[in-house]
Amino acid sequence: MAELHEHARPIQFSDLPAAPVPRGQRPRAARAIRRIGLAAARRQRPAVPARRHRARRLALPRQAPAPVLLPLGEPVPQTPDQSGLPSCSGERRPVVKTTRLLAASAGLLAIGLVLSGCSATPTAPAANAHSDSVVLQNDLQYGTARGEKLLLNACLPKGGGEPTAAVILIHGGGFDSGTKDFGGMTALCSELADGGLAAFSVDYRLAPEFAFPAQVNDVTDALAWLRDPAQVAEFGIDPERIGLFGSSAGAIIASSIGTNGTGSLTGDDRVAAVVALSPAVDLTEKGLLLGDPSKMAISSILQYLGCDDFRACPNARDASPLYSVDKTDPPFYIAMSKKELVPLEQGQAMMLALKAVGVPVTLDVKPGERHALELLDEATRASIRQFLIDNLVNSSTRTD
């Protein structure tokens, strides 16, 4: 599952105003608290401890560290693995029971290889290309889970006066690989800050040691950490204007948090905008029939869900952002290719669900097979730039 290489010109957010547009005082709607109950029927795995956040958390499988962020306007080179189905050599995969889903599995290789990261080659983090305009703070600890430190990198615009909007970046890797430093996230973090937005690239716990909802819980903890008054003051951010930017597996986490809870988008576990590149949103047995699914994906998804069989996997629906959509959710920008690893029907299903309840949504469909950060050509970057300006910088916060 390829993503963009880290040699790109910065995303120019030159349209950003010097200061956020003032918002009137609006009452915050009460949040409806939703919890995810982890099923006792799940496969034997370390239990994920209860977290302090009250609202529901979610997540999904594994996308590999990606290639490179290309300069705007340049075509993404196709590798042999991208010209057809990605191939894996000697990749360990969990043993999965034979199920009646073999017919559905024919197409979910789309998600499976994306999320399992078979086709990508790890790349070293790129040096900051914008050191004159961006302040980098790496390896900041935002929490601890089961004795494991949870870290993030902060990319901050220099010379900021008024509190700035912020974006949390969530890497791909199929939920069992990838980090905040790889797969194009280092370059993207710096680029966003160079354009005037505070960006935070986060790590989260990986499968198979940690299953759903650990990954979503971790990113939600990062969101809460950023909203703490100490971090708000240190980073100069506006806690009411925080968005999420997820790629592939990270797009599932972003979509899950974006549809989590109800009411005001200005606090708690809520966010003001979601950018999701190549998300799968329905991880249920029914969802495997969307588009042209595949077999490898099934093992990746089951690994993430902590199940051996979809028919005995009560977590599948809870882990599917599609079933958590409501009218108070934030605006979504979804980008996918017509023939990429995640079936386009997944994105179309999310678009229809959001539209049905009146939530603003853009589904940006590209020709070809590009996946996740590979989608960030010049036109897509311009569209995402405008989306973030409209929904994090210039827009009043919705409280319905």
UniProtKB/TrEMBL annotation:
It comes from the Bacteria. Residues 1-28 are annotated as: Disordered. PANTHER family: AB HYDROLASE SUPERFAMILY PROTEIN C4A8.06C, ALPHA_BETA HYDROLASE. Residues 155-351 form the BD-FAE-like domain. It comes from Cryobacterium glaciale. One of its GO terms (molecular function) is hydrolase activity. Pfam families: BD-FAE. Keywords: Hydrolase. This is Alpha/beta hydrolase.
